[in-house]
Amino acid sequence: MGDDGQGASKNDNMETGAHGPQDNAMPKFKLRKQESVFKMHPKYKSEDFLANFRDSWAKCSPYCDAKSGIDLRIYPFKLCTLQDFVSEEDGIENLMNEIVNEVEWKRLHTDFLEFHQSPDLSSVISDYLREFYLYLRDEVMSWMERLTGEKLTHVSASCSLYNTGDRLLIHNDCVSDRRIAYVFYLSPWEVVKTWTDSMGGALELFKEDRENMPNFPPIAKIFPRNNQFLFFHVNSKSWHQVGEVLSFDYPRVTINGWFHGPGKKHPIVESSSNWDASITNPAIEKPFELSEWINGEYLEKSTKSTIQNHIEEHSQISLHKFLNPIKLTSILEELKKDSNKLPWEIKSSACERNCESLNLNSPEFLPENTAELIEFLQSREFFHLLHEYTELDLSGKNAKSPKCFLEMQRWRPECYTMLVNSAAKDATSEDEAGVLDAILYLNDFAEAGTYIYVAQKDSKEADQESAMSDEEDEGDFEEEGPLIIQPKSGALNLVYRNADMARFGAYEHRR
């Protein structure tokens, strides 16, 4: 469910990672003659509870019984938590032992998730894990139908394990035939039956904006608690994430997945960029002296030739100590001094990025040296220098209205940008074959703002097909290693990115 799976678009994987069978046929287990090890607490099977809950769910009305541990909320979407879900907790300890000692974990790591996941539980042979899967399939699914009125056909389930620093960023679970997402929490250690904010790992809920996209901050957090069962209705509004685990002592462990059913398939949600940027066409006319801004070594003819040859061979280069140190110091001092006065904004949806951008469309609010840097990066002189470095038509007789997309970012813990799927996302005309990324770092605090480039399928149809599957989707990255651009104060990084390349800003950990 909402913790480990895939959502409506490429950027929508989730924690409920039950990546299970693709067809609607249930796994063919023999009916067991003995009673299940796992039994639902009797209070959740009473006719009074079933009737009251079903009525509240249908009417989108809150239903809370603190004494019984029942909490149905309707905002920002219908979600319920049930405490003491399994009546006998001895089975939970045995279940946990199998999860720790017998599960063959696979490490998942993409632009928006990082955690360990088990195979689908329909294929495991460990006693208690198999029993729990059958319990979900044979008892919980029919009970869920009575609660929600949804017609359900099969269940998918897997185990997820989050260690320190692991997380799963925002998604809505809208893939294929998922109807109800669920998470069963296991935290059997006596001292941490219930997690606290300092441990992280909460399921965080987000509301929509006017464009039906989620934005920070989350409006609610639900923390792990032993023997807690959580479920919610999967729809275009069910935006959520698993917050970064901060605990060094205990992992976040869940069994999670979806109940599937017939009906209209969820639409694929496309997020649209709304980044605050300055676009120039052509470059501005104000004259600049390159030597006032750039280390003189990078202006020498032999150095330019070396840079050009390197880019021709590798499509990228990192130029350390590129910016004049006097200019760099003055800019950093300005930004630090005026930090709280500057127009920093988060303009894009949370499922696309979470980092602040300086509003460059209001230059009157920018410090003097910072405003001058912004103009310099848009100047004809800088465009011509990039032309000499790359031989791209950014200047000279073959240049056709060169332009740039310019943004100044500020990175803090929990910042990230999601995968940019192709150069076409940044281009403004269909005939542009690629984009030259120029990343200038002003400082290198804690490596915040690391960018990662990967080779990726450039087919939109392939992306949509993978998003409609329960199979593990790790971003369709090619086997060759990624290009990692790490912050270095005053360094300029140039990367030529065509439609086969994708990039993202690595998540900045809180720990």
From TrEMBL:
Keywords linked to the UniProt accession: Dioxygenase, Iron, Metal-binding, Oxidoreductase, Vitamin C
Q: Where is the composition biased (Acidic residues)?
A: 468-481
Cite the residue spans of the region called Disordered: 1-26, 462-482
One Gene Ontology term, aspect cellular component: cytoplasm
Which InterPro entries does the entry mention? Oxoglu/Fe-dep_dioxygenase_dom, Oxoglutarate/Fe-dep_Oase_C, Pro_4_hyd_alph, TPA1/OFD1_N, uS12_prolyl_hydroxylase
Reaction catalysed by this enzyme? [ribosomal protein uS12]-L-proline + 2-oxoglutarate + O2 = [ribosomal protein uS12]-(3S)-3-hydroxy-L-proline + succinate + CO2
Cofactor(s) recorded for this entry are: L-ascorbate
Q: Which SMART domains match?
A: P4Hc (SM00702)
What Pfam families does its record include?
Answer: 2OG-FeII_Oxy_4, Ofd1_CTDD
Q: Name one GO molecular function term.
A: L-ascorbic acid binding
Q: Mind listing the GO biological process terms from this record? A: regulation of translational termination
The record ties this protein, via PANTHER family, to: HISTONE ACETYLTRANSFERASE COMPLEX, PROLYL 3-HYDROXYLASE OGFOD1
Record family assignment: Belongs to the TPA1 family.
- This protein is called what? uS12 prolyl 3-hydroxylase
